[in-house]
Amino acid sequence: VSAVWAGEVPPPQPAEVSQPGAQTPLAALAARFNAVQTIRSRFVQEKQMAMLTEPLVSTGSFVFTRTPAQLRWEYQTPFQNGFLITDGQSFRLDKGQKQPLKNKLATQVAQQMFVWLAFDVQTLSKTYRLEPFDGGMKLTPLAAKNSPVAAISVWFAPDNPQAVSRIEMTEANGDKTVLRFSDTHINEPLPAGAFE
C-alpha cells in the first residue's frame, strides 16, 4: 500500500511528559478509543509508488462496529470494490456484490483494518513502538528488519478525539499511502443493511 500526502505534514512533536499519578498518554488514548462502538466515515486514499509518475487517488466510505466485529470498506471511485467482514467471514466486494475472500493475505489486511479504525492500542503495541506526539501517534515496527512498513503516523481529528483524521504509511521501499477521513460519525446508529 502506498501514497503521497498532498501537502506538507508537520513533523511529529514529542508528547508532554505525564505528571506523577496522572494517566499516561497511551492509557488515556486506549480508554478514549475503547469507548468507540460504531464508526461511519468517508475517505480519500492516495498512493505514490516509485513506478508511477502521478499518485493513484481513490475515494470511498466505510462502516464499522466493534461488537459484533463487522466492517464494510468500499471504494466508490475510480473503481467500485472493497471488502466486507461479518459473522466471522471475509468477503470481496465488486460493484456491491460479495464473494468469499480466499486470499489469506487479503483476509489478514482486511482484519487489520479493525485494529486501525478502532485504534486498538493494546494490539498495536505488540507489533509497533508507539510514540505519542501533539495531535497523533507515530508507530515504528518492533521487527523493523522484517517489516515491509518503515513507519506509520496517525493524526486524530481535532474536533473529535475518538476519530482518526489521517493515516500516513511509509513502506520500506519508499512507497507511501495516505488515508484522509472526513464526515466521521462515532457511536451513531448505522444504516440498515450496512453489513449485508
Verbal overview:
The protein has 196 residues and is mostly beta strands. Helices cover 14% and strands 43% of the residues. The protein is built from three helices and eleven strands. It has helices spanning 25-34, 104-117, 121-124; strands at residues 38-48, 56-65, 70-77, 81-86, 89-94, 97-100, 128-133, 136-141, 149-156, 164-171, 176-186. Strands 6-5-4-3-2-1-11-10-9-8-7 form an eleven-stranded antiparallel beta sheet, covered by helices on one side. β8 (136-141) and β9 form a beta hairpin. The longest helix is centred in the middle third of the chain and has 14 residues, at 104-117. It starts with 24 loop residues before the first helix and ends in a 10-residue tail after the last strand. Mean pLDDT is 84; it is low at 1-20.
- Count of DSSP H/I helices: 3
Bin the helical content: 10-25%
SSE topology string: HEEEEEEHHEEEEE
For the secondary structure, the number of strands is: 11
Adjacency order of strands in the biggest sheet: 6-5-4-3-2-1-11-10-9-8-7
Overall average residue pLDDT: 84
Radius of gyration: 17 Å
What is the approximate shape? globular
Q: Separation of termini?
A: 27 Å
Question: Brief overview, please?
Answer:
The protein has 196 residues and is mainly beta.
Q: Which key features would you list for this structure?
A:
196 residues, mainly beta, 11 strands, globular
Describe the secondary structure blueprint for this structure.
Layout: H1 25-34, E1 38-48, E2 56-65, E3 70-77, E4 81-86, E5 89-94, E6 97-100, H2 104-117, H3 121-124, E7 128-133, E8 136-141, E9 149-156, E10 164-171, E11 176-186
Antiparallel strand pairs: 1-2, 1-11, 2-3, 3-4, 4-5, 5-6, 7-8, 8-9, 9-10, 10-11
